[in-house]
Amino acid sequence: MSDPNLGYDVVILGGGSGGYACALRAVQLGLRVALIEKDKVGGTCLHRGCIPTKALLHAAEVADSTRESAQFGVLAELTGIDMSGVNAYKDGVVAKLYKGLQGMIKAAKIDYIEGTGKLVGKNTVEVDGRRITGKNLVLATGSYSKSIPGLDIDGERVISSEHALNLGEVPASAVILGGGVIGVEFASAWHSFGTDVTIIEALPRLVAAEDADCSKQVERTFRKRGITFKTGKPFESVKHTDTGVSVTIQGGEVVEAELLLVAVGRGPVTQGIGYEEQGVGMDRGFVLTDERLRTNIPGVYAVGDIVPGMQLAHRGFAQGIFVAEDIAGLDPQPIDENGIPRVTYCEPEVASVGLTEEKAKEKYGADKVKTYNYNLGGNGKSQILKTQGFVKLVGVVDGPVVGVHMVGSRVGELIGEAQLIYNWEAFPSDVAQLIHMHPTQNEALGEAHLALAGKPLHAHA
Ligand code: NAI
């Protein structure tokens, strides 16, 4: 039994993916939990991120299927996009999940406290004048859409992804600043809805965090689709015009459009909530932790987007669960960040886990790394879907597969097996002997492993 004088076993500040996962796991383990949230439980992912954007991208896929239906002998005509209908569908998905999540939090007997919390002591959070104490505190305050110095997001012509999710009309044209995950996802959806899109990216390639072959394939397909992108071109300035914005990029080139979407990354929400005052170790706004997600203050943990690393909901879930188990004394295994799967839901999708070829060569030496690219041209189901792309494996010579990288329609759904292969340190021959369903896209993973194990079927060695 917990000591009532010490308050809760765990006080969690922030009810997004990291915070609520921690709360749910902690009560399962018999701990007394308070979960503090100023807005809505579910956070960025459910209300402003993963879920609504993927609904938008699905509507975009439906638009593409309609537009391209004649290729399949189906006669249909795309007569327009009704954004209020798209928004109603998207909001309906979010509302249903939100209701379910609220029900789970209630049923779990978590003390849910609505309000803005501030750290006022090493084991105390203040919410609207009320002090809540816990033997352990978990900081899970999430992230916000960043901008760059001098660039004001006004929510009208210069917008963030949050605004972009709630547009009443399809923009005729848009400039997207940033060719990272958010940039390419919105570029893809808007293009499918009929927007004339231009992406501006400072780095030499789109989705630059991915394996270079993935960037190349996305760029090739975007070019074919008619999505304009300018890589290696940092943004310089923006001016409002009568009809929208005029964006200048390095070298003086100007692009005009109805609006500018700023997608240059997300910053941690850590200011003005007592972290610095209480001496929590931080770097550029992020909260520093060890591999057990402990901050420099005993009993204070941090999870999710405020911890340096990939800002992904499922990383937050895993970290939240990890912290609950650590507090309960279960001694969980630290999380291998490379084993966290990544999917970018543009068309074509990009899915990966483990090391890129470049990173693997740095880690193991170029002569110890072997790769195999299985082209989806040899995969029946991908041909049926009329998608192009590949499954690329990065393996260690006489060792396990240390990276899987895929591009193509729907390949995000293939990441489950890839993630087990990486995390279970499977050798190509381990996977090659397992039978993959024919005809599926998943079969492409099987074929790639057959080839890497030296016995290709519908491929070359
Ligand atoms: P990001 O870090 O993926 O991409 C930002 C891009 O902006 C970078 O490529 C950067 O080089 C570029 N950039 C920055 N300053 C620039 C400038 N002055 N001029 C031109 N380009 C510039 O960040 P993004 O796309 O905003 O996403 C934020 C976070 O949200 C990411 O951590 C991402 O993982 C997460 N997210 C994940 C999704 C998924 O898993 N499918 C979907 C959407 C977001």
Automatic annotation (TrEMBL):
PROSITE patterns: PYRIDINE_REDOX_1 (PS00076). Keywords: Cytoplasm, Disulfide bond, FAD, Flavoprotein, NAD, Nucleotide-binding, Oxidoreductase, Redox-active center. FAD binds at residues 54, 117, 141-143. GO terms for biological process: 2-oxoglutarate metabolic process. Residues 8-320 form the FAD/NAD(P)-binding domain. It comes from the Bacteria. It catalyses: N(6)-[(R)-dihydrolipoyl]-L-lysyl-[protein] + NAD(+) = N(6)-[(R)-lipoyl]-L-lysyl-[protein] + NADH + H(+). NAD(+) binds at residues 178-185, 201, 265, 305. Its EC number is 1.8.1.4. Residues 340-448 form the Pyridine nucleotide-disulphide oxidoreductase dimerisation domain. One of its GO terms (molecular function) is dihydrolipoyl dehydrogenase (NADH) activity. SUPFAM superfamilies: FAD/NAD(P)-binding domain, FAD/NAD-linked reductases, dimerisation (C-terminal) domain. InterPro entries: Class-I_Pyr_Nuc-Dis_Oxidored (IPR050151), FAD/NAD-bd_sf (IPR036188), FAD/NAD-binding_dom (IPR023753), FAD/NAD-linked_Rdtase_dimer_sf (IPR016156), Lipoamide_DH (IPR006258), Pyr_nuc-diS_OxRdtase (IPR001100), Pyr_nucl-diS_OxRdtase_dimer (IPR004099), Pyr_OxRdtase_I_AS (IPR012999). GO terms for cellular component: cytoplasm. Its cofactor is FAD. Binds 1 FAD per subunit. Pfam families: Pyr_redox_2, Pyr_redox_dim. It is found in: Cytoplasm. Disulfide bonds join 45-50. Its main location: cytoplasm. Gene3D superfamilies: 3.30.390.30, FAD/NAD(P)-binding domain. The active site is at residue 438. The active site is a redox-active disulfide bond. Belongs to the class-I pyridine nucleotide-disulfide oxidoreductase family. PANTHER family: DIHYDROLIPOYL DEHYDROGENASE, DISULFIDE OXIDOREDUCTASE. This is Dihydrolipoyl dehydrogenase. It comes from Phytomonospora endophytica.
